[in-house]
C-alpha cells in the first residue's frame, strides 16, 4: 500500500492543489512513500552519528567532542605551563561556542583525556579528583581544574597558520577547525572506542617510539608491507600494562583491521612471612575495574567456586598497583592462577576494530593504511604551513625592499613627505615618484626616526637577506616531496625523544588457548572405584593409609539395607573395579558386551570412603543391559610398552588391537571386541607386542605364553583361544609377565601369596596351564592376580562389603605354586575380595 499525505481543507483538495481552503498559502504538501522517507531520514541520522559523534577522524584520532574541548582550552589560554583553570569554565566555553549538547558528554570527554589509566599519553593535565581505576567517579566540574598537557600542544601546533580548514560553528557566530594539524599519530597513539549506528570502533593505544619508527620507515620505504611494519610496532601498548598472549590477533588487527587480542594481568609469586605462597597482581588488562575485580574474587571465594585462597587484600597506593592473593598451605599456585584467569577479569579479550573516518566515510584500516593517512595529513599540513609562511616571508621581503630603497634615497623621501598636505597625499606621492606599492609606502610612513641610524639600516639589510634565504628554503620544500618527507621524519624523531617512553604491555609469543576444566584440576594421584551396581567415584590416594598384612582394612562404601542410607551402597552392591591413576588421565570403560567408552578422571565426582558415588550411566552412554567389566587407564602416548590393547574374556578368548584405534572414543562408545554367545569381556591391559601373557583360572590353573602368538586384529573381531578351561571353570584374571617379577594371586576369602614368574614355564597359547594355587573351601576360589616386581610397591584391596586395605606387596609371603597362601585381609563370613590396584609409594602418609 502507498502511504500519501493529502490536504484536508477545501473539501479534500489533492496534494499540491491550492492552499487548503483559502488559507494563507503556507506551503506545498508533497506526497511520498513512507518507506522512502524512513530510509532517507534514518540514513541521514546514522551518518550524522557516525561522522559527528561516534567515530574518530583518522587524521588526528579525535572525535568532535574531544577536538572541540581541546580547541576551546587552547583558545582561552589553558596551554601547557599556564595556570590551571576550572573545568566548568571549559565545559561552558565548549557548550557556548562549539558543542550544544549535554555538559555531561563534554566533561566526561575532558576527564577521560586526563586519566592516565584511560589514555596512553593523556592530553589534559588535570588537578583534582579525576576518578580512579577502581571506578570512582571524578569530582564535579566546579571542583576540578585542568590545562592542556604538553603533548596536546603537538596536536594544536601551527593551527593559526592556515594548516587546516575551519567551518562555521553551530550558530554561525564563530569558527572551529575540521581537524587538528596533529604532529602525533594520535589515532593509534591513544586509540579510540565508540559505537555508531550499525558499526563500532575499538582501536588500541600504542607506544610513541614504535609508531615514530614505523612512520619513519614508511616514509623511506612506501612499499613496505604490514609484516615490515611489525618490526617496529610490536603490538598495542596499554596504559595499564598487562600481557598480550600471542601475535596472531595482532597480525589480524594490523593486516585486516580486525583482530582478537587476549590480554592477561601481570603477576608475580612471593613467599609470605608465614611461609605461604602469594600471588601478586601488579598490572591489569586495559579497562578492568580494580575494585570490581577484587569484589568478584571475594565473591567466588565465598561461594567456594575458587579454592585455595586464604586471604585477599588490595594494597595499591601511589607507588603502584598491588593486589595480594594469599594461598592456603596445600594450594597449588598455578591451579589457583588458572582458575582466576578462567573466572575473573584477570583475562580479557580486546576485540580490535580499526574503524575511523577517512574522507567523510567510515573505513576499516590496516596498520599501514592508518599510518599512510597520517603521513598524507602531515604532508598537507606542512605544505599549507609552508605556503602560509612563504606568503608572509614574501610580504615581508616586499616591505624590506621598499625600506631599503627609502634609506638609499632618504633625503628625497623626506622632502616628498614634507611637501604633502596629509598622509594620503604623502602615500600617493611616494607611490608616484619612487614606484612604491601602497603597502611599501605605508610602511615608509610608519618608519620611526630611530630606524634611520646606521645600525638600524644594517639590521634591515640583514633581515632582508635572511628573509630571501627563508623564501628560497620554503620554495624548495614546496618543490620537493622528499623534503616534506624529511620534515615529517624529523618531527617523529623529535617527538620520540621528547615524549617517548618504554613499552608497558608485554607481548608473549605463546598463543593463549582456552582453559579446559582439566587445566583447573590439580594433577594428583587418585583411586577410582566402580561398584557392581555401577556407582563411580574417585578418592585421593592418601585417604588410604598403609597397613600390615592381615589387617581388617578401613571402612569404604558401607552396604545398607534397601535405600535406608542414600550415601551407602545396597546389600547386593560392592566395589568391583579399582584403578589407581591421576586426575588428568583418561579411563576406558569396557563392558561385558565388548563395547568401550571413555571418560576423563576429573569428570568423576570426588567422594569420601563411605559415599557410593554417582551412577556411571550419568557420565557415559551405556545401555541398561550393559555393565562395566573392565576399567583401564588409556596410555597417554603410544610407546614401546603400550603399542597394543590386550583383551581377555571369561571363557578364555584373547585378542589384541593397536592402541591408536582407541585414541578417539565417541561418547556413545565403540565396539572393542565381538563375542561368542554366552561369553563376556572382562580384562584389558596394555602390551608391547613382545610380552609374555599369564592367564589364571578360578580353580587355580595358570598358563604363560608369548604374546606374539596372538596376532593383531581390528576392533570389530572375535579373537582366539587363550586358555582351555575345565568344566565349571572360568578365567579369574590376566597379567603381563615381567622378568624377575612375582605373580601375586589373591583368593575370594582374602588369602594370597607371591610366586616368582620364572616358576611358570612358557607354553603355547590355548593350553590348560599348570597349578598356581591350591583351591580349597577355606581359601575360596582364585579372585584376582597381579604381577609385581618391587617389594615396596603398595596395593589396595577392596571387598564386596566396602572394606579397603592398603599394604606393601613385600609383606605377602613368597612361596611356591602349589600352596594355599597366607591371610592378606581378614574377611567377614559373607564378604569376599573383589578388586586390587597399585598405589604409588610416594603417597604413603
UniProtKB/TrEMBL annotation:
Record-linked SMART domains: TOP4c
Domain Topo IIA-type catalytic: 55-520
GO molecular-function terms, A-Z: ATP binding; DNA binding; DNA negative supercoiling activity
Taxonomy of the source species: Bacteria, Bacillati, Candidatus Dormiibacterota, Candidatus Dormibacteria, Candidatus Dormibacterales
Description of how the protein assembles with itself and partners: Heterotetramer, composed of two GyrA and two GyrB chains. In the heterotetramer, GyrA contains the active site tyrosine that forms a transient covalent intermediate with DNA, while GyrB binds cofactors and catalyzes ATP hydrolysis.
Family assignment from sequence similarity: Belongs to the type II topoisomerase GyrA/ParC subunit family.
Name of the featured protein: DNA gyrase subunit A
Keywords: ATP-binding, Cytoplasm, DNA-binding, Isomerase, Nucleotide-binding, Topoisomerase
Amino acid at each position: 500500500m502507498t502511504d500519501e499525505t493529502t490536504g484536508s481543507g477545501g473539501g479534500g483538495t489533492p496534494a499540491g492543489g491550492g492552499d487548503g481552503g483559502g488559507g494563507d498559502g503556507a506551503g506545498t504538501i508533497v506526497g511520498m512513500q513512507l518507506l522512502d522517507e524512513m530510509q532517507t531520514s534514518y540514513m541521514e541520522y546514522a551518518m550524522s552519528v557516525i561522522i559527528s559523534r561516534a567515530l574518530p577522524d583518522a587524521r588526528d584520532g579525535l572525535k568532535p567532542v574531544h577536538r572541540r574541548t581541546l580547541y576551546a582550552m587552547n583558545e582561552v589560554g589553558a596551554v601547557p605551563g599556564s595556570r590551571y583553570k576550572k573545568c566548568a569554565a571549559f565545559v561552558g566555553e565548549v557548550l557556548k561556542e562549539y558543542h550544544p549538547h549535554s555538559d555531561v558528554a563534554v566533561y566526561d570527554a575532558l576527564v577521560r583525556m586526563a586519566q592516565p589509566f584511560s589514555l596512553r599519553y593523556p592530553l589534559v593535565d588535570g588537578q583534582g579528583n579525576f576518578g580512579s581505576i577502581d571506578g570512582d567517579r571524578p569530582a564535579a566540574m566546579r571542583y576540578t581544574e585542568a590545562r592542556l598537557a604538553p603533548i596536546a600542544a603537538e596536536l594544536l601546533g601551527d593551527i593559526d597558520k592556515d594548516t587546516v580548514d575551519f567551518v562555521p560553528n553551530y550558530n554561525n557566530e564563530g569558527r572551529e577547525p575540521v581537524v587538528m594539524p596533529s604532529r602525533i599519530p594520535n589515532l593509534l597513539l591513544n586509540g579510540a572506542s565508540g559505537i555508531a549506528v550499525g558499526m563500532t570502533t575499538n582501536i588500541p593505544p600504542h607506544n610513541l617510539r614504535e609508531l615514530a619508527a614505523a612512520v619513519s620507515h614508511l616514509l623511506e620505504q612506501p612499499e613496505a608491507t604490514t609484516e615490515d611494519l611489525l618490526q617496529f610496532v610490536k603490538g598495542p601498548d596499554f596504559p595499564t600494562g598487562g600481557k598480550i598472549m600471542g601475535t596472531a590477533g595482532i597480525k589480524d588487527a594490523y593486516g585486516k583491521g580486525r583482530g582478537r587480542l587476549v590480554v592477561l594481568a601481570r603477576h608475580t609469586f612471593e613467599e609470605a612471612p608465614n611461609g605461604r605462597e602469594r600471588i601478586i597482581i601488579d598490572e591489569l588488562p586495559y579497562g578492568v575495574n580494580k575494585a570490581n575485580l577484587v569484589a568478584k574474587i571475594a565473591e567466588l571465594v565465598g561461594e567456594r567456586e575458587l579454592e585455595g585462597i586464604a586471604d585477599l587484600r588490595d594494597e595499591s597506593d601511589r607507588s603502584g598497583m598491588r593486589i595480594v592473593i594469599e594461598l592456603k598451605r596445600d594450594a597449588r599456585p598455578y591451579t589457583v592462577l588458572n582458575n582466576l584467569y578462567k573466572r575473573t577479569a584477570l583475562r580479557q579479550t580486546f576485540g580490535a576494530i580499526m574503524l575511523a573516518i577517512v574522507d567523510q566515510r567510515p573505513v576499516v584500516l590496516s596498520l599501514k593504511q592508518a599510518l599512510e593517512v597520517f603521513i598524507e595529513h602531515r604532508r598537507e599540513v606542512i605544505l599549507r604551513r609552508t605556503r602560509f609562511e612563504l606568503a608572509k616571508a614574501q610580504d615581508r621581503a616586499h616591505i624590506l625592499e621598499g625600506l631599503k630603497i627609502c634609506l638609499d634615497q632618504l633625503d628625497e623621501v623626506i622632502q616628498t613627505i614634507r611637501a604633502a598636505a596629509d598622509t594620503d597625499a604623502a602615500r600617493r606621492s611616494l607611490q608616484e615618484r619612487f614606484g612604491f606599492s601602497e603597502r611599501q609606502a605605508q610602511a615608509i610612513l610608519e618608519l620611526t626616526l630611530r630606524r634611520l641610524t646606521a645600525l638600524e639600516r644594517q639590521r634591515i639589510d640583514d633581515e632582508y637577506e635572511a628573509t630571501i634565504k627563508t623564501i628560497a628554503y620554503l620554495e624548495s620544500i614546496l618543490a620537493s616531496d622528499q623534503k616534506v618527507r624529511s620534515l615529517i621524519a624529523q618531527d617523529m624523531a623529535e617527538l620520540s625523544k621528547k615524549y617517548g617512553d618504554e613499552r608497558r604491555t608485554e607481548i608473549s609469543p605463546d598463543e593463549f588457548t582456552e582453559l579446559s576444566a582439566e587445566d583447573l584440576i590439580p594433577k594428583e594421584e587418585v583411586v577410582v572405584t566402580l561398584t557392581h551396581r555401577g556407582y563411580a567415584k574417585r578418592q585421593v590416594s592418601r585417604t588410604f593409609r598403609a597397613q600390615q598384612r592381615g589387617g581388617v582394612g578401613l571402612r569404604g562404601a558401607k552396604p545398607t539395607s534397601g535405600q535406608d542410607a542414600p550415601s551407602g551402597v545396597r546389600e547386593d552392591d560392592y566395589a568391583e573395579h579399582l584403578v589407581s591413576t591421576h586426575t588428568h588421565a583418561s579411563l576406558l570403560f569396557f563392558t561385558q558386551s565388548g563395547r568401550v567408552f571413555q571418560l576423563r578422571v576429573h569428570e568423576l565426582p570426588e567422594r569420601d570412603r563411605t559415599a557410593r558415588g554417582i551412577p556411571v550411566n550419568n557420565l557415559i552412554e551405556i545401555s541398561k543391559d550393559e555393565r562395566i567389566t573392565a576399567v583401564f587407564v588409556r596410555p597417554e602416548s603410544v610407546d614401546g610398552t603400550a603399542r597394543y590393547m590386550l583383551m581377555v574374556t571369561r571363557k578364555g578368548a584373547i585378542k589384541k588391537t593397536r592402541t591408536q584405534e582407541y585414541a578417539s572414543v565417541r561418547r556413545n562408545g565403540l565396539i572393542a571386541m565381538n563375542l561368542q554367545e554366552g561369553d563376556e569381556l572382562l580384562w584389558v591391559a596394555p602390551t608391547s607386542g613382545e610380552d609374555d601373557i599369564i592367564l589364571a583360572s578360578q580353580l587355580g590353573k595358570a598358563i604363560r605364553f608369548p604374546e606374539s602368538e596372538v596376532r593383531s586384529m581390528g576392533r570389530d573381531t572375535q579373537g582366539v583361544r587363550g586358555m582351555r578351561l575345565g568344566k565349571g571353570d572360568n578365567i579369574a584374571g590376566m597379567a603381563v609377565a615381567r622378568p624377575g617379577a612375582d605373580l601375586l594371586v589373591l583368593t575370594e576369602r582374602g588369602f594370597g601369596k607371591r610366586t616368582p614368574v620364572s616358576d611358570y614355564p612358557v607354553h603355547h597359547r590355548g593350553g590348560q596351564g599348570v597349578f598356581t594355587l591350591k583351591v580349597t573351601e577355606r581359601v575360596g576360589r582364585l579372585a584376582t592376580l597381579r604381577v609385581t616386581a618391587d617389594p615396596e610397591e603398595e596395593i589396595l584391596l577392596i571387598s564386596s562389603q566396602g572394606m579397603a586395605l592398603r599394604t606393601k606387596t613385600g609383606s605377602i609371603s613368597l612361596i611356591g605354586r602349589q600352596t594355599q597362601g597366607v591371610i592378606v585381609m581378614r574377611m567377614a563370613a559373607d564378604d569376599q575380595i573383589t578388586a586390587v590396584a597399585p598405589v604409588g609409594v610416594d603417597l604413603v602418609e
